[in-house]
Structure formats: C-alpha cells, structure tokens
Design a protein that fits this description.
This protein is an alpha+beta fold. The protein has eight helices and four strands. The protein has helices spanning 5-22, 26-42, 46-51, 57-68, 73-84, 91-105, 121-135, 167-179; strands at residues 108-115, 139-146, 154-158, 161-164. Strands 2-1-3-4 form a four-stranded mixed β-sheet. Strand 1, helix 7 (121-135) and strand 2 form a beta-alpha-beta unit. Helix 1 packs across helix 6 and helix 2 runs antiparallel to helix 6 (91-105). The longest helix has 18 residues, at 5-22. The mean pLDDT is 92.
C-alpha cells in the first residue's frame, strides 16, 4: 500500500528534524532546506521530472549531484534517500513540514497581511511586534499583499484567525448598523 505525500512528508521531516536537533545542526539544516526549496520553486516541475520517466537516469543523477553540492551530510542523505526510493516529488512537502516543526520549536509564526499600501520597515516591525505579543510568538514572519480595495487599515491572517481592521470592513459594518 502506497503512502500519501503528506504522510511521507510528516515521517521524513520528523525523522530529519529529530536527528539534526539532537546533533545541534537544526538552524544550519533549516537554512539549507529553505535554499533547496527555493531551487524547486524556481524550477517548476523539477520535483515531478525527478520522480517521473521524462528524464534519463543519468540526467536525474546529474541533477541530484548538483542539488547535493555544498550541502551538509544530512541534507545530502535526504536527497539521496528520496531519489533512491522514488519520492523526489515529496521534497517540497517534506521541507514545508520541517519548517512547520522548526517554527513551533522556535515559537515563530507566519502571518499573511493585506494592506492598502506598501508598509515601510518601521510599520512592518511594529506590526510584527504587536502580533508576536498578541500570539505569544518570538518572531513573526509577514507575508505582505497590497490590495487597494481595502481602502486603509490592515487584515491579518495568522494562527487560523483573521483580524480585520480594514477601512472597507468598518464601512460595511457602519452600513449594516444604519440599515437596522
């Protein structure tokens, strides 16, 4: 019976996370995996090409060797194991799951932020600090989107919650109250 991609991702990420945490290379491995994920994101279809039959074995091996260049032994072993077991199509999912574990261990959270205009560094820092305090995080990583339709204010999606302080929502709320 074949395991689904998320089950594979959870198992591999957990094993790698525990291994590098025990060997005090967690931060280094995290950085390597983030860089590796960027390679896959920049080369759309690389995962499926390495897992599929479109490429010859020698071409796949050349790509694998290139991915392993400069990596720590743990990341080299992960890449090789996934290649050997025909699971290269799970690489990004494994990295995502590893990052999720890393975030939990470091009390780091991601927040999707929608604003009407681009925030400057001071505004981003203040928003991050406020969200960190509100959610008990050590660090908040903001993924910012600009949407002029919200008119002003900010909408934050973080920790399965939505905080809507947009001007467009406030106007809608006033309209509802006036209609009553």
């Amino acid at each position: 019976m074949s395991l689904d991609k998320m089950t594979v991702a959870r198992r591999y990420a957990r094993a790698l996370f525990e291994l590098v945490d025990d060997n005090n290379t967690l931060d280094q491995t995290y950085q390597e995996l983030i860089a590796l994920r960027q390679v896959f994101e920049d080369n759309e279809g690389l995962e499926s090409a390495l897992a599929g039959v479109q490429m010859t074995f020698d071409d796949k091996k050349a790509v694998i060797n290139n991915l392993q260049t400069g990596a720590s032994q743990y990341v080299v072993n992960l890449i090789q194991m996934l290649f050997d077991y025909g699971r290269m199509d799970c690489m990004v999912a494994i990295i995502d799951e590893f990052e999720r574990r890393y975030d939990i261990a470091n009390k780091r959270m991601h927040a999707d932020v929608v604003t009407a205009i681009q925030l400057d560094k001071q505004q981003k820092d203040q928003l991050s600090a406020n969200l960190a305090k509100r959610f008990g995080a050590n660090e908040v990583v903001l993924n910012e989107t600009v949407d002029p339709e919200i008119l002003g204010g900010v909408i934050v999606h973080a920790d399965h919650k939505t905080l809507d302080g947009s001007l467009s929502s406030k106007i809608k709320q006033i309209r509802r109250l006036l209609v009553r």
